[in-house]
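Per-residue structure
===
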Amino acid sequence: MTVRAEKDLELGRAAEFQGVPLSELPRVLGAAPDADIMLMRAADNYFSFFTRDYIERHSPFLAVRIDGLPPSQWPKTSYGAALGPYLVAHEKFDGAELLVGLKEPAKFPYAVVSVEFARAADTVDRLKVSGAATNASLRVGQTLALSACISCHHAGDFGGTLAQRPWMILSTWAKADPSYFRRYVRDPKSVNPNSKMGGFKDWPDEAIESVRRYFAAYTPAP
């Protein structure tokens, strides 16, 4: 497929992509019939996952060419990192509003080096907390944690390892020192000058507190 994005989320400009819709990858790559979640890892161990619902709503695709060029000729990121060998892009993205002033984050991993398939019941569903279905704050916190935090933090073999801090560490911080947790999410370098995390300075206070409440409520599934 060939798609022209008016403003790609990673490049920050219009671009033409050639690629494969994520909806087609399970068939192309021979995923098991009961696999309902797609896992992607980047060269630096950044992690993303895509549910069927996200794919149906946003139609992401795995790009193999940008403006007719192969990965070896793709531009670098603002950090000077390579975008290839694969990246995920969207023709357009309009996330659902989670809070006033905050929409659902888009997923556009780059430098993707592996694609795997799994069951949500064995992976992401095990990180969901009791009460999120009826508690709006927990629900928002869970959505943000499983969209943003999971990229660099892991629970067992699910999630990213870029941060080298597992899910349970975040849970411990959220319970033991709420103020520290909130400061770290907002501006990591203010509490740890060596942190590589950029922080979420644009998130409203309500969003950061919702994420803290999620991690405080989290307990590992048996």
Notes: Residues 205-217 form the longest helix (13 residues). Residues 129-222 form a domain with the Immunoglobulin-like fold (CATH 2.60.40.420). The chain has a mean pLDDT of 93. The helical segments are 25-29, 52-58, 136-147, 167-176, 178-186, 205-217.
